[in-house]
């Protein structure tokens, strides 16, 4: 059967439909190729990985993969687990290692080293119940991704644009609250996705208010998983991805 010479257009099309917005076979192909480069796997293997994330079946396509690709795929699928060693608090003896699967509370494909690193750390923090860290990290990531959207849509070469996200008098980025106000004020610039802007601002505002307390006060600890789940981080990041498509980041 051998290694597929080209990526399966049917699977690419299904992924584009799942992504929605302005996603096309071409844009999904670029996403798959970027994933392949980041993970150092073949493009067919990256296609299967992306399809699995979107809950799209690839059994027939996988059957046509070469043995080398199948080995790469098995390795890539196991890469989302981490080995931890459990130590008994009673007699100090070590038990057998346990495998913990990292929970992806946020699924966000990124080729940027720093964005990817933050997303990976966020998911690890959630998996190991470091919920205060999740709050603070999520706020940091969301704030910067929104700034990236504003910069792309409103290039800083125009002073009025730059002032949407940058405090010129103080030579620093504006506070998150002002960033959200700027985004909301420019919602009509996003055309038919103006409602997505409104919804993102509403959800992110809740994250901003809660994360401020967690960041600046020792008396605010997040001890319950429900506090994180109530933030609806998945919806926030899906909205961010949709607006990234609109402005051409994706």
Task: Give a description of the structure.
This protein is mainly α. It folds into two domains: 9-78, no CATH class; 113-247, Four Helix Bundle (Hemerythrin (Met), subunit A) (Up-down Bundle). It has twelve helices and four strands; from the N terminus they run αααααββαααββαααα. It has helices spanning 9-19, 25-39, 43-53, 59-63, 67-78, 113-127, 131-153, 159-162, 176-185, 194-216, 225-229, 233-247; strands spanning 81-84, 98-101, 166-167, 172-173. The strands form two sheets. A two-stranded antiparallel ribbon has the order 1-2. Strands 3-4 form a two-stranded antiparallel sheet. Helix 3 (43-53) packs across helix 5, helix 6 runs antiparallel to helix 7 (131-153) and helix 7 packs parallel to helix 12. It is globular. The model has no long low-confidence stretch (mean pLDDT 85).
Q: Strand fraction band?
A: under 5%
Label the CATH architecture of the largest domain.
Up-down Bundle
Class based on secondary structure composition and strand pairing: mainly alpha
Count of alpha/pi helices: 12
Give the overall silhouette.
globular
Q: Please indicate the count of domains.
A: 2
What's the arrangement of strands in the largest beta sheet? 1-2
Give the SSE string: HHHHHEEHHHEEHHHH
Q: Helical proportion?
A: 55-70%
What is the rounded Rg? 21 Å
Total beta-strand segments: 4
Average pLDDT over all residues: 85
The biggest beta sheet, please?
A: 2 strands, antiparallel
CATH overall fold name of the largest domain: Four Helix Bundle (Hemerythrin (Met), subunit A)
Give the distance, in angstroms, between the N- and C-terminal Cα atoms: 34 Å
Ranges where pLDDT stays below 50 over 5 or more residues in a row are none
CATH class of the largest domain: Mainly Alpha
């Amino acid at each position: 059967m051998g290694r597929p010479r080209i990526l399966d257009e049917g699977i690419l099309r299904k992924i584009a439909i799942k992504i929605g917005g302005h996603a096309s076979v071409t844009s999904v192909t670029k996403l798959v190729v970027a994933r392949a480069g980041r993970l150092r796997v073949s493009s067919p293997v990256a296609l299967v990985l992306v399809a699995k994330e979107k809950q799209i079946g690839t059994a027939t396509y996988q059957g046509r993969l070469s043995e080398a690709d199948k080995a790469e795929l098995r390795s890539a699928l196991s890469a989302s687990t981490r080995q931890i060693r459990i130590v008994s608090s009673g007699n100090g003896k070590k038990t057998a290692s346990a495998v913990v699967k990292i929970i992806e509370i946020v699924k966000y494909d990124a080729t940027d080293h720093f964005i990817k690193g933050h997303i990976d750390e966020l998911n690890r923090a959630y998996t190991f119940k470091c919920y205060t860290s999740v709050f603070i990290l999520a706020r940091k990531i969301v704030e910067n991704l929104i700034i990236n959207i504003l910069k792309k849509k409103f290039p800083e070469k125009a002073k009025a644009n730059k002032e949407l996200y940058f405090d010129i008098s103080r030579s620093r980025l504006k506070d998150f609250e002002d960033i959200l106000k700027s985004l909301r004020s420019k919602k009509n610039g996003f055309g038919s996705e103006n409602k997505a802007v409104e919804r993102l601002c509403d959800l992110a505002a809740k994250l901003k208010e809660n994360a401020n307390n967690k960041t600046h006060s020792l008396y605010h600890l997040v001890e319950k998983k429900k506090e994180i789940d109530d933030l609806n981080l998945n919806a926030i990041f899906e909205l961010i991805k949709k607006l990234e498509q609109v402005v051409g980041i994706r």
